[in-house]
Amino acid sequence: MKWLGRSPGDRRAPEPGSYEQSGAWTVDRAIRALATGCAAHQRPVPAVGAVVLGPETVALRLTTPDENPAPGWTVEEHGRTWRASLRWLQTAAVDDRLPEPFPLLVSLGMTDDGRLLLNLAEAAGMISLEGDTELARGLARSWARRLATSPWAAAIRVIRVGFEPDPDFTGLDVARLIEVAATLDGPEPGGVLLFAGQPLGRDLHQVDRLLGEPARRWSVVAVDAAEATWRFVVGVDGTVDTGLLDEHVRLRP
After folding, report:
1. What would the mean pLDDT of 192-219 be, rounded to a whole number?
2. Ramachandran bin of 139, using left for φ above 0, alpha for ψ from -120 to 50, beta for the remaining angles
């Protein structure tokens, strides 16, 4: 797989169980080990557009090449990829006091290399989910549920706009953004807004304002957005063309 490069919970190892449970723990540990190693060597955490969880390794797809990896990581593709073994991650040093570097990681699906997670914060503007509308909305609902419960996303806000009620979603559900105006502009950390359709009127004006902030705190995902930086096309066959990879991604429940 080639990356085309556009631009607090329980930390113990999981008991034997589902792939999602063990996968989430492994990704969380990899991110925390990365942050810990970078802090120890007084260097910034690299900008990461995607994470690939394979059967034996975790790979980070960097948006800007960096050939000086943190301890435990090796460099590939002239600094475009950092890789660490799952065996090393089991015992790698982790400092839980450090802030999460990638709170907006979401699972998209499977590639030939493993499970692919995207960092929504790396999109410079709106993210559009299009193609089959029902599958696109289902993907947005899945991202919202996971972000509201993922160990690396504990500090962010997850707000859905225009979706039908979902008992499995533990974030905020609103019909219009005006309902959460105080949250959007408050001092608390930002997060992600997910729209069931294209933002219109005052909602679109608010979205443009938030995405234009110098220190952007909110990422925006919308189904069938008119203008977007990242466009993910969901096919009726359950695959996604990201425009970021040289292969399609297979959706997973």
Report:
1. 95
2. alpha
